[in-house]
C-alpha cells in the first residue's frame, strides 16, 4: 500500500517531468489507432481524477512574489543538483520540426537560430551535430546552465553564441541582431514563466525574428498527466503550478497560446495538441501525456518556411 511509485521517464523525485523522453532520449512512438494531434475536445477532462490537478484556491500574493523573486535561484539550484544529467538530448527535434530544413531557400543556406531557454544544450548540441550549416544563439535564465553549455566540448564560438538572459526583461537585441534570426525554438520554456509575463517573452523574441521567420513551439498541454498529478497545495493560479523544487509549470490550451502569440504580432501556422503515452515498464504503468506543438510566423516576406 505504501510502496513508493517508480518514476516515469522525464520525472524526478521533485515532480519535475520536463518532457516525454524514453530511456534513449527519443520520443515514444505513436500509438496504433491514435492520431498524433487532437482537438481541444479530445483532451482529458479536468475532473477525471479526484484530488488531482489542484482544485484549491490560488496561492497568496506573498507566495507568488517570493517564487517570482527566487525563480532564477531555483533554476540555478536545479542545474547545480543535476548538471547535464537530467534531461535527455533532444535528437527528435529535427524529426518533429521539419521546418528546420524547410526554412532554407537554398540547400546550402546557413540558417540562424535562436534557442530561447537552452538549458544545458540538450537541443543545441544534437542540432549542431546534425546540421553543419547552422549558427545558433542560445540563451537561458540560469547562469549555471549557460556555463555548462560553454564547457561542453562541442561548443565553439564559430557556430554558436550562448548567453544568460531573462527573456521577460533583458532585451535580446543586446546579443542578437534585430531581425537577424530565421527560426526561434521555444521548447518547454514558456511554461516556466509567470503567465503575466509570457507576452513580454514573445514580444522580445519577435524583435529578433526576421519577417517571414518562424517560432517552433512545444510545451505542456492542458490536463497533461503532470498537471493531474499536482496536489491542491501546489496550485498557484489557473493551470499554473509549483514543483517541490520551486520551479513552476503552466499548462496551455491552444486557444490561449494563439492569443498570446497574436498579441506579439505573430500569426499561427499550426497549433495542435499532441497525445502520447509514457510507459513505466518497471511498474507496468502507462500514463497519458498532452503536449502542444505549434508553429507561428512573423508577417512579412517568406524566408522559405
TrEMBL record:
One annotated Gene Ontology cellular component of this protein: nucleus
Pfam families per the UniProt record, alphabetical: Methyltransf_12
Compartments where located: Cytoplasm; Nucleus
Keyword annotations from UniProtKB, A to Z: Cytoplasm, Methyltransferase, Nucleus, S-adenosyl-L-methionine, Transferase, tRNA processing
Catalytic activity: cytidine(32) in tRNA(Ser) + S-adenosyl-L-methionine = N(3)-methylcytidine(32) in tRNA(Ser) + S-adenosyl-L-homocysteine + H(+)
Record keyword Metal-binding present: no
InterPro entries: Methyltransf_12, METTL2/6/8-like, SAM-dependent_MTases_sf
GO BP, sorted A to Z: tRNA methylation
Span of domain Methyltransferase type: 114-215
Annotated region described as Disordered, given as residue ranges: 1-59
Keyword Methyltransferase annotated: yes
Ranges of Basic and acidic residues composition bias in the record: 8-21
GO MF assignments: tRNA (cytidine-3-)-methyltransferase activity
Similarity remark: Belongs to the methyltransferase superfamily. METL family.
Function: S-adenosyl-L-methionine-dependent methyltransferase that mediates N(3)-methylcytidine modification of residue 32 of the tRNA anticodon loop of tRNA(Ser), including tRNA(Ser)(UGA) and tRNA(Ser)(GCU). Interaction with SARS1/SerRS is required for N(3)-methylcytidine methylation.
Self-association state and partner proteins as the record states: Monomer. Interacts with SARS1/SerRS; interaction is mediated via tRNA(Ser) and is required for N(3)-methylcytidine methylation.
Protein name, per record: tRNA N(3)-cytidine methyltransferase METTL6
Source organism per UniProt: Gasterosteus aculeatus aculeatus (three-spined stickleback)
